[in-house]
């Protein structure tokens, strides 16, 4: 399969030090394509862009001067185009498309470099904006004086209406000491809750600086040492020290999932804020410090409390400030650690369906508001030495984790205690540190967000960033529906970089977007079909609330988050979204609804906001939790849960900018899962079976190289715990490849299909999938053709020990004797244990015995030529450097036209010896599973083989081709019946066809239109190369080279070759 990557191309500099243009593009290229093959296409795509790009926040800045405009050239054109990733020029002949830095989400420039993002050193100082309406910024402290404020003239710009234009100044002394002073701000400055005046006050590492509604945390590489010297509470041990589990589902040291007891929240925590501040710094602040303070005081004097928000600064303006940048994080960040004890999330019990809040009361003086706030603190409140703790990471931590692939990336699977729990904001209670306010989508089922759009979108971005960073794509997909009037594609295009929006089986689009009514109808239909396939079945429309709640609580598989931005536009879409909001959680679908309303204030109470939201978007009534922006400037949020207090819970909102979201999404774009969740197969609804399937595509080996095979074999060995695998891929199913493992099922496979059904092709594919899944020294193949030579092409695989065509009675008898001898040899060795126990004991270091003759040598007499037959009393240890599976590999015996052996035709030259072969095969059917030998037999006449042991002992059964006399007959179309009664339909995969032309197509570069990514992709018919190699020959060559590199020697043949 060709690789596809999405990236952004920047043009050369213009006269005003701005790029002449930029364009998001989709690159499609065969594996191994070098950059030189697409440079012309990149220039042509950029030249064809006539308008501004749809994305936001692309890096700007360059160390080079202007260059001549890029001319449109063909991908094979001769014009040389210099391509840069940051300040690094890429080698067009060595750089591979799809390999770093030319991966998903990359930003490249033509003809000139761009400035690389600033990266902190291990000892660098930085301010992280950990909460507030413009959270997530990571600012490196390079200069002597750093001004914090709302003005674009500030060094750290915060889009917080409660922050003055120049609010405070942070100074870094030559010895590394950090101080802060207020610049006459309207709403004041505080450090760890203590007010800061106009004189410099120490700002130690780990301290929380509060300005307006925003909190900033001073971080340094020596923070752990600073915390220890200040007497801060000790943090949990790191995973490297052995104190915390590792892996994708780490909960943190001392934190366990499940229903563990939760200690109550301490109403007055006795955390130690550290020793009292010492005397003022001895160095002279100097006239520059005084000038900055005076200017800030003058500007703030004209302001009134809670000023309206000014226009947001451009991303380029924010990042152009000297000494301040979007930092990259080093490994081992302390805030990645989890709390010492489990705590409750901030979600309340689910009550009966009804209106939120129940009563219409003004925000002020609500009955029970004070006591409710105290009770709320115990739900989701988590206090550590940091600003709010890391159980629910702050936006700055999210960005740094995405940039540096931290341990917390994709840590939560469906079984995680905090799965689908999102942080909405932070609340303060007296002198205590701010605590996160969270909502669990599993309990709320759906979440409604309402408020003015300029503040609503930052909150939605922060929620989606949490979900996509903490949950892998195999466990969470995101669908965006923004088809209503006035909705902008630019508001959501940043999500297009994330792997969570890639479609799967049954989703006919390029990305899970819906920006028009046709796309919205397709996305909702896909989700409604999943709901119908779920536990409620076709009766989900009339299901009772208790049934829906029970099914939602029982769901433990992957989930889908459907983001609906405002009214979908049609009555049918409104009804579909409302049904998904109310019932979707039964199959793991959770809706996040956005409604544009005024904020809740004393003059516009909660009831008015709810009424406006309900009238704008009826699906709001189905949401179990609401986050309503509050206050005159909408920087507060009131979280209301169904069945809880009508007052809800008041907190400061967490929001992130569009530039932050784009940077975050691009950082996460190239990430891929190494081991997707086992539950991922059940995420998608069943799709229609394809008319044809290619085995290499189903195996994920479109690039069948020795390196890919070696990695696959290593993964199989790690997952099998030392035992070899007998993994079979039969073809394409409705939810991906249909596969089984004979070793895990402890069974044989029996295939039935008439003439023209494709059973021989299926056996060839099964042989190839076995070879692709295991090394030849751990798995041997024996091929038997009962009639004809359909399996002969598979003999090129290095795993094949013996190929037998049933036409020579002498060779057939010799084969039967050798196969029976192998069974006897294994039976004597494994008389007290089975094959799996033998492998486990050998792997544990127990004494093992191999049946190979004296001192480990095999007999070479004519009577047992090529066999591993045991002579009584002659046993030897496994040779040095070997293993149980290499000394005694598994065997898979594949037999085509078994019915021709059971009932050979008159005149068949192999008829006299057919009975001997059948008896040997039936012995394998009886005893082979326990001895590590598995049988895969196919018959064209099931009536002739129905009474055989081979037929009756096979728990796995597949029928293929259907009835040739009916319209349902289709070659390769089959049904697999598993031992547990499960049935899977599939389209058998081909492996003997010529490689498709798509494997040799030239790469293409096309401009990305995010608005059309939700449309069905255009497809070209796949044609085979008439004179090219077959997929089987290609795979056999790669397997042979991989086996040679791995030093995997196949076992000796049962019967000498012809």
TrEMBL record:
<keyword id="KW-0067">ATP-binding</keyword>
<feature type="domain" description="FtsK">
    <location>
        <begin position="735"/>
        <end position="975"/>
    </location>
</feature>
<feature type="domain" description="FHA">
    <location>
        <begin position="146"/>
        <end position="196"/>
    </location>
</feature>
<keyword id="KW-0547">Nucleotide-binding</keyword>
<dbReference type="InterPro" id="IPR002543">
    <property type="entry name" value="FtsK_dom"/>
</dbReference>
<feature type="region of interest" description="Disordered">
    <location>
        <begin position="94"/>
        <end position="124"/>
    </location>
</feature>
<feature type="compositionally biased region" description="Basic and acidic residues">
    <location>
        <begin position="966"/>
        <end position="977"/>
    </location>
</feature>
<feature type="region of interest" description="Disordered">
    <location>
        <begin position="846"/>
        <end position="865"/>
    </location>
</feature>
<dbReference type="InterPro" id="IPR000253">
    <property type="entry name" value="FHA_dom"/>
</dbReference>
<feature type="compositionally biased region" description="Low complexity">
    <location>
        <begin position="294"/>
        <end position="304"/>
    </location>
</feature>
<dbReference type="Pfam" id="PF01580">
    <property type="entry name" value="FtsK_SpoIIIE"/>
</dbReference>
<feature type="compositionally biased region" description="Low complexity">
    <location>
        <begin position="46"/>
        <end position="61"/>
    </location>
</feature>
<feature type="region of interest" description="Disordered">
    <location>
        <begin position="227"/>
        <end position="395"/>
    </location>
</feature>
<dbReference type="GO" id="GO:0005524">
    <property type="term" value="F:ATP binding"/>
</dbReference>
<dbReference type="GO" id="GO:0003677">
    <property type="term" value="F:DNA binding"/>
</dbReference>
<feature type="region of interest" description="Disordered">
    <location>
        <begin position="46"/>
        <end position="80"/>
    </location>
</feature>
<dbReference type="InterPro" id="IPR050206">
    <property type="entry name" value="FtsK/SpoIIIE/SftA"/>
</dbReference>
<feature type="region of interest" description="Disordered">
    <location>
        <begin position="944"/>
        <end position="977"/>
    </location>
</feature>
<feature type="compositionally biased region" description="Pro residues">
    <location>
        <begin position="305"/>
        <end position="314"/>
    </location>
</feature>
<feature type="compositionally biased region" description="Low complexity">
    <location>
        <begin position="227"/>
        <end position="253"/>
    </location>
</feature>
<feature type="compositionally biased region" description="Low complexity">
    <location>
        <begin position="368"/>
        <end position="381"/>
    </location>
</feature>
<protein>
    <submittedName>
        <fullName>FHA domain-containing protein</fullName>
    </submittedName>
</protein>
<dbReference type="Pfam" id="PF00498">
    <property type="entry name" value="FHA"/>
</dbReference>
<feature type="compositionally biased region" description="Polar residues">
    <location>
        <begin position="945"/>
        <end position="956"/>
    </location>
</feature>
<feature type="binding site">
    <location>
        <begin position="753"/>
        <end position="760"/>
    </location>
    <ligand>
        <name>ATP</name>
    </ligand>
</feature>
């Amino acid at each position: 399969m060709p690789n596809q990557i999405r990236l952004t191309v920047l043009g050369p500099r213009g006269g005003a030090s701005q790029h002449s243009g930029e364009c998001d593009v989709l690159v499609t290229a065969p594996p191994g394509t070098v950059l030189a093959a697409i440079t012309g296409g990149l220039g042509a795509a950029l030249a064809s862009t006539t308008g501004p790009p749809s994305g936001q926040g692309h890096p700007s800045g360059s160390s080079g001067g202007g260059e001549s405009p890029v001319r449109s050239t063909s991908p094979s054109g001769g014009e040389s185009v210099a391509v840069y990733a940051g300040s690094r020029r890429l080698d067009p002949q060595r750089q591979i498309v799809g390999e770093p830095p030319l991966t998903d989400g990359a930003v490249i420039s033509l003809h000139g470099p761009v400035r690389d993002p600033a990266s902190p050193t291990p000892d660098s100082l930085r301010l992280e904006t950990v909460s507030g309406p413009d959270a997530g910024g990571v600012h490196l402290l390079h200069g002597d004086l750093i001004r914090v404020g709302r003005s674009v003239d500030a060094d750290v710009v915060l889009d917080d209406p409660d922050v003055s234009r120049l609010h405070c100044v942070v100074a870094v002394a030559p010895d590394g000491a950090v101080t802060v002073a207020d610049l006459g701000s309207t709403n004041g400055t505080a450090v760890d809750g203590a007010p800061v005046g106009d004189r410099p006050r120490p700002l130690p590492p780990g301290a929380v600086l509060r300005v307006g509604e925003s909190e900033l945390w001073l971080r340094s590489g020596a923070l752990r040492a600073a915390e220890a010297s200040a007497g801060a509470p000790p943090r949990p041990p790191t995973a490297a020290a052995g104190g915390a589990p590792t892996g994708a589902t780490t909960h943190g040291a001392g934190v366990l999932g499940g229903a563990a007891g939760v200690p109550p929240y301490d109403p007055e925590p006795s955390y130690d804020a550290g020793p009292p501040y010492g005397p003022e710094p001895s160095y002279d602040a100097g006239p520059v410090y005084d000038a900055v303070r005076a200017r800030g005081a003058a500007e703030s004097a004209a302001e009134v409390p809670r000023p309206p928000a000014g226009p947001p600064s451009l991303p380029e303006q924010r990042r152009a400030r000297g000494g301040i940048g979007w930092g990259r994080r080093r490994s081992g960040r302390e805030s990645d650690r989890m709390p010492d004890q489990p705590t409750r999330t901030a979600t309340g019990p689910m009550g009966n369906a009804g209106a939120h809040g129940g009563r219409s009361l003004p925000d002020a003086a609500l009955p029970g508001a004070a006591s409710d706030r105290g009770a709320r603190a115990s739900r989701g409140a988590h206090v550590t030495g940091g600003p709010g703790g890391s159980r629910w990471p702050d936006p700055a931590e999210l960005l740094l984790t995405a940039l540096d692939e931290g341990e917390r990336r994709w840590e939560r699977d469906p079984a995680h205690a905090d799965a689908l729990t999102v942080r909405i904001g932070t609340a303060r209670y007296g002198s205590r540190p701010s605590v996160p306010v969270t909502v669990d989508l599993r309990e709320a089922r759906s979440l409604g967000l309402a408020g003015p759009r300029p503040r609503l979108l930052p909150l939605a971005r922060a929620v989606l960033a949490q979900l996509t960073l903490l949950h892998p794509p195999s466990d969470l997909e995101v669908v965006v529906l923004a088809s209503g009037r006035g909705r902008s594609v630019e508001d959501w295009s940043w999500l297009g970089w994330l792997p969570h929006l890639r479609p799967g089986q049954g989703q006919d689009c390029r990305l899970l977007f819906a920006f028009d009514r046709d796309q919205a109808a397709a996305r909702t239909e896909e989700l409604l079909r999943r709901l119908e396939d779920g536990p409620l079945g076709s009766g989900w429309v009339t299901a009772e609330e208790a049934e829906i709640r029970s099914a939602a609580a029982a769901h433990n598989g992957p989930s889908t988050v459907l983001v609906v931005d405002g009214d979908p536009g049609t009555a049918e879409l409104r009804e579909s979204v409302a049904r998904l909001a109310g019932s979707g959680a039964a199959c793991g679908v959770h809706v996040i609804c956005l409604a544009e309303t005024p904020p809740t204030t004393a003059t516009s109470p909660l009831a008015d906001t709810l009424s406006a939201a309900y009238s704008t978007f009826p699906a709001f009534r189905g949401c179990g939790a609401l986050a309503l922006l509050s206050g005159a400037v909408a920087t507060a949020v009131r979280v209301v849960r169904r069945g809880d207090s009508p007052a809800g819970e008041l907190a400061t909102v967490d929001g992130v900018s569009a530039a932050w979201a784009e940077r975050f999404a691009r950082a996460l774009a190239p990430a891929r899962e190494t081991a997707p969740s086992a539950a991922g197969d059940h995420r998608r609804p069943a799709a229609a079976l394809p008319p044809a399937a290619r085995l290499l595509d189903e195996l994920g080996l479109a690039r069948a190289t020795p390196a890919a095979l070696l990695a696959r074999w290593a993964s199989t060995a790690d997952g099998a715990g030392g035992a070899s695998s007998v993994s079979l891929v039969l073809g394409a199913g409705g939810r991906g490849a249909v596969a089984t493992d004979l070793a895990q099922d402890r069974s044989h496979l029996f295939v039935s299909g008439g003439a023209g059904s494709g059973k021989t092709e299926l056996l060839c594919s099964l042989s190839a999938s076995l070879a692709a899944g295991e090394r030849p020294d751990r798995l041997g193949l024996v091929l038997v053709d009962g009639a004809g030579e359909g399996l002969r092409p598979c003999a090129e695989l290095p795993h094949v020990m013996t190929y037998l065509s049933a036409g020579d009675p002498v060779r057939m008898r010799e084969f039967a004797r050798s196969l029976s001898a192998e069974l006897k040899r294994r039976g004597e060795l494994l008389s007290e244990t089975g094959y799996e126990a033998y492998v486990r004991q050998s792997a544990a270091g127990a004494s093992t015995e191999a049946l190979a003759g004296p001192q480990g040598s095999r007999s070479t007499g004519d009577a047992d030529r090529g066999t591993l037959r045991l002579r009584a009393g002659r046993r030897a240890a496994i040779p040095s450097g070997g293993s149980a599976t290499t000394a005694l590999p598994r065997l898979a015996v594949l037999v085509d036209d078994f019915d021709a052996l059971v009932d050979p035709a008159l005149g068949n030259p192999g008829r006299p010896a057919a009975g001997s072969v059948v008896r040997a095969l039936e012995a394998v059917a009886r005893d082979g599973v326990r001895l590590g030998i598995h049988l895969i037999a196919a018959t064209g006449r099931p009536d002739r083989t129905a009474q055989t042991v081979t037929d009756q002992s096979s728990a796995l059964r597949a029928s293929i081709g259907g009835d040739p006399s009916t319209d349902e007959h289709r070659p390769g179309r089959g049904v697999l019946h598993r031992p547990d009664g499960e049935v899977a339909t599939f389209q058998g995969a081909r492996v003997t066809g010529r490689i498709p032309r798509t494997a040799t197509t030239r790469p293409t570069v096309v401009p990305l239109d995010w608005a059309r990514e939700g449309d069905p992709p255009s497809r070209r018919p796949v044609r085979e190369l008439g004179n090219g190699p077959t997929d089987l020959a290609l795979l056999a060559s790669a397997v042979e080279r991989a086996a040679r590199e791995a030093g995997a020697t196949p076992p000796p043949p049962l019967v000498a070759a012809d």
